[in-house]
Design goal:
The protein is α/β, with parallel strands linked by helices. It contains 18 helices and 18 strands. 37% of the residues lie in helices and 20% in strands.
Length: 471
């Protein structure tokens, strides 16, 4: 059997903070389902936040000591199997009994330990992978260790960049003391005078991927690469992009108990009840004919909120309602709270991260706004499409790859797009969407196109299988 090992710092439903957790919770299972000849396994840390309901299913696999530079640390390995995938959990309370997955002062050491534990584990459990697929900087050292320490003869490595803004940058003085690497590895890791784990993994990997084809092109330029563009260009011969998918069972308009009414691409009538529920949830008048524009997002600058702030009051002069679900930067939270109080019958804001509310909004809104400055892949636009909510997106990263502008003359396209990072280009795109909204024939066609777009993990899994086979 082909042995595939995913290494990551998170995987849903066990531990997750964002898109990486979603990917690791879905992609391995999709590959296992698509390729019966693949033995697919995943390894993550056993954080203290992992719930007891999952711990009770785990079996103890191994226990040993990790030698990392001058450190000697306990390592426990636990496992459980779900959806055809074996999940391993690296146990060490000194490193992983923390309130948060990331943002600790010793993250470099924590994830160096994790990567060393993974590499030692595979030799002990007799599972040396054919493909070792590492994800983001926290697991980058696995790829670097494969080249400079372990050198498993038949193992090929893939390194996926989920967001190049997070690179794992440290001083060169800890090369041997924390990472247990010699001077021969220094050239692979050093970038701009520092150790850069993402750069090192890119250099050492057999293949580098990103989570959309457009993003793989964008990060060759300085604007999107957070300073790493020179390294990306040097690896362009082994760089590609594969768009993430979404869990179709989890986001199913015909079978989602969280929403007010089921509906489908063949019968959209239930969406009206979902819209009314969202209007009630946000304290807005139940107005079935008024277009409802929604955003669900972390409130951060790169999500395009400066554009929204600039023209939101102008947008609210139109016959629309606007709702926002999310939490983040305090300045943005304060602004949207103020707008909601100023326009209580047109704008509703819930400053929270709530998956149940999110699904209600995806199902009940008419228009979903996503004007990102950068977006490696994006999942929200796919979830909106799944529920027949028309996305208005900027043509960047994964948004460019997944949302194509609707053309009323041909009936093709699953959303409305704009190109420049400009508030009035965004507002113009919303106005074009509102014109379509009042053209019921075209609007229904657009909604159906959105709902029938293929954003399944099965599609993504086939692309990864091709990549692994090529290696």
């Amino acid at each position: 059997m082909k042995k595939i090992l995913f290494v990551a710092s998170e995987a849903n439903p066990y531990a997750g903070t964002g898109g990486l957790g979603d990917v690791m919770g879905s992609l391995p299972a999709a590959i296992a389902e698509a390729d019966p000849d693949a033995d697919v396994r995943v390894v993550i840390p056993l954080y203290s936040t992992v719930k007891n309901e999952y711990r009770e299913k785990m079996e103890r696999v191994d226990e040993f000591v990790i030698n990392l530079s001058w450190r000697r640390q306990y390592c426990g390995v636990y496992a459980l199997k779900e959806k055809g995938v074996t999940y391993y959990f690296i146990d060490n309370e000194f490193y992983f009994k923390r309130n948060a997955l990331y943002g600790n002062y010793d993250d470099g050491e924590r994830y160096a330990y994790f990567c060393k534990a993974v590499m030692d584990m595979v030799t002990r459990i007799d599972f040396v992978p054919d493909i070792l697929h590492a994800n983001d900087w926290q697991s980058a050292l696995c790829v670097i260790y494969q080249k400079h320490k372990y050198r498993f003869p038949n193992t090929k490595t893939v390194y996926t960049i989920h967001n190049i803004d997070y690179q794992g940058i440290y001083g060169t003085d800890i090369l041997s003391d924390v990472f247990e690497l010699g001077q021969e590895a220094k050239n692979d890791l050093v970038y701009n005078g520092c150790l850069n784990l993402t750069k090192g993994a890119m250099i050492c990997a057999n293949h580098v991927s990103t989570v959309s084809q457009q993003y793989s092109e964008e990060i060759k330029g300085e604007y999107f690469a957070s300073g790493l563009h020179h390294a990306v260009r040097s690896c362009s011969h082994k760089l590609s992009g594969i768009v993430n998918g979404i869990d179709y069972a989890l986001f199913d308009p015909t079978n989602s108990p969280e929403i007010a009414s089921a509906f489908s691409s063949e019968d959209l009538s239930g969406k009206a009840q979902c819209k009314a529920e969202v209007q009630r949830l946000f304290g807005l008048p139940e107005a079935p004919e008024v277009p409802l524009v929604a955003m669900i997002s972390r409130l951060a600058a790169h999500k395009g909120f400066d554009l929204v702030r600039y023209v939101l009051e102008e947008l609210l002069q139109r016959d629309v309602q606007f709702v926002l679900l999310g939490t983040g930067e305090s300045e943005l939270e304060n602004f949207f709270s103020w707008i909601a109080k100023k326009y209580p019958h047109k704008c509703g804001v819930i400053l929270a991260y709530n998956k149940t509310f999110a699904k209600k909004v995806y199902a009940g809104a008419d228009i979903f706004l996503m004007p990102s400055k950068s977006e490696p892949c994006g999942l929200a636009q796919m979830m909106a499409c799944r529920f027949g909510t028309v996305p208005v997106v900027r043509e960047v990263g994964g948004l460019y790859d997944t949302i194509k502008a609707y053309d009323p003359t041909t009936g093709n396209g699953n959303g409305v797009t704009f190109k420049s990072y400009d508030a009035y280009d965004m507002l113009n795109a919303i106005d074009r969407t509102l014109e379509l909204y009042y053209d019921r024939e075209n609007w229904n066609k657009l909604c159906v196109n959105a709902m029938t777009s293929d954003f399944s993990w099965q599609r993504s899994a086939q692309e990864y299988i091709k990549l692994y086979s090529s290696l």
